[in-house]
Amino acid sequence: MDNRAIREIYEGLASAYDWAEGIPEALVIRRLRRRVFAAARGRILEVAAGTGRNFEILPADASVVAVDLTEAMLRRARPKARRRGLQVSFAVMEAEALGFRDGTFDTVISSLSTCTFVDPVAALREMARVCRPGGRILLLEHGRSNRRWLGRLQDRFAETHYRAVACRWNREPDALVRAAGLELVAHTRHLLGVFHVMEARPAAA
Ligand SMILES: C[S@@+](CC[C@H](N)C(=O)[O-])C[C@H]1O[C@@H](n2cnc3c(N)ncnc32)[C@H](O)[C@@H]1O
């Protein structure tokens, strides 16, 4: 799949996204979002912001730029920013080619996105490029379980799942972070080893 195909899938999913994610969100994902994104400070970039589910966690006085491939997803994020009273600038943009100067942001955040990016390593390199030296890259991702039975099950249905919702659920997000040359400073796994809470930094020049 290329970015055009991914965008088409998310245009189709946008109206049902919050509803469909409601149960996993309530059971586990919201808690993990708080755990990782409460530390976001200063000028914040959210990459693949989707319907804006992280906005409720970001500090109310933050200055936020939210980008996503799919306008239909961002359309659902705008009211959430307004309700929260958060200053957010929105832009349709590919994570693999972020239109910002090096070192623009204090914190770069992204969630449930490396499973979807056509080129996740390029996207993570871009996050590091636009993050200032000493800034933070905060990530909540999901991937292949480290429980053997579940990992195998994910492998078995990986292609079917990818074709349906453009999500490669058997990627290894921590390996992608390292492959992109970021410094992984904190990493924990949750819920049968599927979810990854990660804090990374751009590698020192
Ligand atoms: C599973 S959703 C996650 C949305 C949100 N981050 C969340 O936590 O609910 C994946 C999002 O990634 C976006 N996306 C996929 N590929 C992208 C790319 N190359 N650049 C920017 N956004 C992308 C999709 O449009 C979609 O909104």
Provide the structure class.
alpha/beta
Number of helices: 7
- CATH homologous superfamily placement: Vaccinia Virus protein VP39
Briefly note the CATH topology name. Rossmann fold
Task: Write down the domain tally.
Answer: 1
Please compute the radius of gyration using only Cα atoms.
16 Å
User: Reading side by side through the largest sheet, how are the strands ordered?
Assistant: 3-2-1-4-5-7-6
Mean pLDDT: 96
Tell me what portion of residues adopts beta-strand conformation. 15-25%
Name given to the CATH architecture: 3-Layer(aba) Sandwich
- Calculate the terminal CA-CA distance, rounded to whole Å: 34 Å
Structure in a nutshell:
The chain has 205 residues and is α/β, with parallel strands linked by helices. The chain has a single domain, classed as Rossmann fold, CATH 3.40.50.150. 40% of the residues lie in helices and 25% in strands.
Could you please describe the fold and organization of this structure?
The chain is of the alpha/beta class. The chain has one domain: Vaccinia Virus protein VP39 (Rossmann fold), CATH 3.40.50.150. Helix content is 40%, strand content 25%. A 7-stranded mixed β-sheet has the order 3-2-1-4-5-7-6, with helices on both faces. A hairpin with a 4-residue loop joins β6 and β7. The longest helix has 18 residues. It is globular, with a radius of gyration of 16 Å. S-adenosylmethionine (SAM) binds next to α1.
